[in-house]
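USER: If only I could read backbone structure tokens as easily as an amino acid sequence. It would mean a lot if you studied the pair and described how this chain folds. Here is the record:
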Amino acid sequence: MTMKAWIRSPFSLALVAMLGVLGACTKKAGVDATTIRMRLPTDPPSLDWTLATDNVSKEVLQNIQDGLIEHDVDMKVRPSLAASWTISPDGKTYTFKLRKGVKWTDGQELVAQHFVDSWERLLAPATASEYSYFLFDVVNAEGYQKGEIKDFGQVGIKATDAETLVVTLKVPAAYWIHIPGFWVTYPIRKDVIAQHGDKWTQPANMQTLGAYRLKAWEHDSKLVLEKNPTYFEAEAIAGAPQNVEFRVVKEESTAVTLFEGGQLDIVRDLPPSQVPTLANMPEFISTPYLRSYYVGFHVKNGQVADRRVREALALAIDRNEVAKVLPKMVTPESSWVPPGMIAYNSERGIKHDPVKAKAIWDSIAKKPATIDYWFDTRERNKLVAENLQNQWKRTLGVDVKIQNQEWKVYLKFLEKSPPAVFRMGWGADYPDPDNFLNLFTCQSGNNHTGFCNATYDGLLKTASGSQNEAERIKAYDQAQKILLEDEIAIVPLFVEANLHLVARRVEGFRPNNMGDFYFRNLRLK
């Protein structure tokens, strides 16, 4: 069926009743005033927050578990499981005092050791977490993760008593207070994991601390959360929806149809072909988003190992042309650090120059006859891939084979055997350029490019350890030049807007610039 056939057609609305695989009930919208329903594009790859790496898992995790801090709608740090904290005068020691009386869903009290256990698990070599590098600012954390230090007691993470967590950094890091809000730093229960093994994230086994707890998980169909009766801010969530139902709806157009039929309350990842029409609806919400999209090169892959090949491919890309296939959804951008952050520089990156691109391409004696370009299966990614395929063919005469995989499979593919050219995106985990540039350090588990540059890594260490903003900006800008222009490991294409359809019965929906929102803050009319 074509995309247009889904746009507000009587047939598409009638089809809702037959979508049993979605678990959609046929009640009229608004009948169930206790449940809010949101679309997920795929089953969460993992609800083990030490291992989760994606935004789909994040949507669930941020509502069933809490960290030491969180970011409010204005991107300010606010206390969560930590009641307060102090930072030493030299900027290297953070002392967190936990809230009193916080209980897990099974009634056990939260203690500082639960954070120590979590961070030890995150750094353990056997865990192989892609986000372990988030803690490398901590004394001896990197050495422990690499197996050079065997005793975790030497790592700068200590529970001095049940309510006090002390973290010691190697050097001051201007952004570090944001780190304990990221999901991989959430506390864990070692006893629960030991008892249930890989099945600890199943609803009957999982123990959490958030405003909601996992009630049911029908894989590839839906997840149901229910309000957590042991939540430490019980009064604050008294008016929040009793239940949250995440429905796995893979097709974006199907999700819009379900929304129009009253079967979903919140939909994101809207179908590009429908966005210009949907933008006229009162339920359409567009907010700023610290999220960038890039073409990645595996610099050691034979197809693109020659830097001149990567340069020609980069020069051949007209970002404005790419943006036209995603109207109202993206803004062309060549800087990897997105607008709204310090060190954003619109002059960074390789600009479109088809004449130069063709000259470089023609000068390469052993250039690839074909190039493989991979992306994860979504309509917008397909549109971008087809546009790039056409641009590269038109400008360089090269044949590009585009291939795609489902999200969970694609993530594993990138981790184990990244292809020559691939698409990926990155949304801010914390509002600092370090989060975007640290992605491509030698030790980053999220670096799928094969790019490793000691000077680049050194610049990031200089920037993170400085309290002088001008010095930080200079170091980050030099790092961007190496990544985007000297080595050409990636080619940023655009920054995204955060688009949602939100039912008018939902009140209080206001995501911050990282895309975070919490169901506990929503109310249903």
Observations:
- Confidence is low (pLDDT under 50) at residues 1-30.
- Residues 379-396 form the longest helix (18 residues).
- The chain has three domains: 36-64+210-287+499-524, 69-193, 291-496.
- The two ends are 35 Å apart (CA to CA).
